[in-house]
Amino acid sequence: MQIGIGLPATDPGVSTDFILDWARRADAGPFSSLGIIDRLVYSNYEPLITLAAVAGITGRIRLMTSVVIAPLRTAGILAKQAASLDALSGGRLTLGVGVGGRADDFHAAPASFNDRGKRFEEQLTLMKRIWSGQPVDDTAGPVGPLPARQGGPELLIGGYTPFAIQRVARWGDGFVLGRASDPSTRRQVLHMVVEAWKEAGRPGRPRLVSSIEYAFGPAALERAAASLRRYYSYLGDQRAEVISKSVISSPQALKADIQAFADIGLDELLIFPVVSEMEQFNRLRDVIG
């Protein structure tokens, strides 16, 4: 199982220099990917623009969105942005996409919220067409540039619902599982993805990716809990409090979680920092080796 690391681009107030320094160090190893999440109504950096900046100062590590909220954007523009980033990075983009679940993001875009699932499927169809070099339709020609990877960047689809799982089998190269509370839930969802893939007659197996969050040390853990409560406040105080207490806080706990993910057949695990301190990067690197 590969181990990726999240970019600290969500922490309000984090500096550009810090993000780029983090990316350079991750590119030096031992991490497989740099992951980034997406929000609109929050003080995070926009994911595709951030990864474009990172692409210019890295040469080895993969660049992954986990995930971009596709229905906040138009399909043609998102397809062009992703193809451009894939081409500029030498084919290092893994585009994780999902429908999103926060109404305020859609209000701010603006984009319609209630039909986002239907629009998402239409986007996936059009983006795959654009990446293959075909004309958009009878009235509009091809949208360039072509991505470095034939047929488009690696496409992972996120979510927990049966709809999301079926979309993986129809459009995706794999599945990205977000926060899951226990190994049993993780195992069940990933099994459903593999079975849907087989039923659709897809060759091989889908690539399976998931993510967890960490903060090492008592002071960092306190800051992490406050950050998570703020980030997940839209779920209500009780749920946000539960999430704030779930962050991994020791190397021993992290090693156990890594082993649990490996045991259920995960291909890559993204480990996201909740606290933007280079000490957190160094301690994680030491654990991963």
Major sheet characteristics: 8 strands, parallel, barrel
- From the structure provided, what is the oligomeric state, counting identical versus distinct chains? single chain
Radius of gyration: 18 Å
* CATH level 4 superfamily: Luciferase-like domain
Number of strands: 8
Estimated helix fraction: 40-55%
Query: Which architecture per CATH?
Result: Alpha-Beta Barrel
Strand fraction equals 15-25%
CATH domain class: Alpha Beta
Order of helices and strands: EHEHEHEHHEHEHEHHHEH
Count, helices: 11
- Which geometry do the CA atoms define? globular
Structural class by helix and strand composition: alpha/beta
Indicate the low-confidence ranges by residue numbers: none
N-C termini distance: 14 Å
CATH topology descriptor: TIM Barrel
Which strand order does the major sheet show? 1-2-3-4-5-6-7-8
Name the average pLDDT: 93
Number of domains: 1
How would you characterize the overall build of this protein?
With 289 residues, the chain is α/β, with parallel strands linked by helices. The protein has one domain (2-288): Luciferase-like domain (TIM Barrel), CATH 3.20.20.30. The chain is 45% helix and 16% strand. It has helices at residues 16-27, 47-55, 75-88, 103-108, 116-131, 162-171, 183-199, 218-231, 237-244, 251-263, 278-288; strands at residues 2-6, 33-36, 62-69, 93-98, 154-158, 174-177, 207-214, 268-273. The protein has an eight-stranded parallel barrel, surrounded by seven helices. Strand 3, helix 3 and strand 4 form a beta-alpha-beta unit. Helix 2 packs parallel to helix 3, helix 6 packs across helix 7 and helix 8 (218-231) packs antiparallel against helix 9 (237-244). The chain is globular, with a radius of gyration of 18 Å. The mean pLDDT is 93.
